[in-house]
Design goal:
Elements (H helix, E strand, L loop, with lengths): L31 H12 L20 H13 L1
Helix pairs in contact: 1-2
């Protein structure tokens, strides 16, 4: 019995800390548009999963159209 070779995998982590912990950080919370961009940027080259450890409980502070951007990118992924 021959064991197939283990597939080559590469993992990337994008870690973003709130400005209270990271004085060099930009505005927080990010707009949904930025989250949508991250999904698009990671899925385009073939990411199998994109995970956000946060809740989208309130509408985007910049406008509902930004909520639509992240929703569309997540659906497309």
């Amino acid at each position: 019995m021959q064991i197939p070779p283990k597939p080559e995998t590469t993992s990337y982590w994008l870690r973003w800390m709130r400005p209270a912990w990271n004085p060099t950080a930009s505005e927080w919370p990010w707009s949904r548009e930025r989250h949508g961009y991250v999904v698009h940027y990671l899925k385009e080259p073939g990411a199998k999963a994109v995970v956000f450890d946060l809740l989208f409980l309130e509408p985007d502070r910049l406008g509902e159209e930004f909520d639509a951007v992240v929703a569309e990118e997540m659906r497309a992924a």
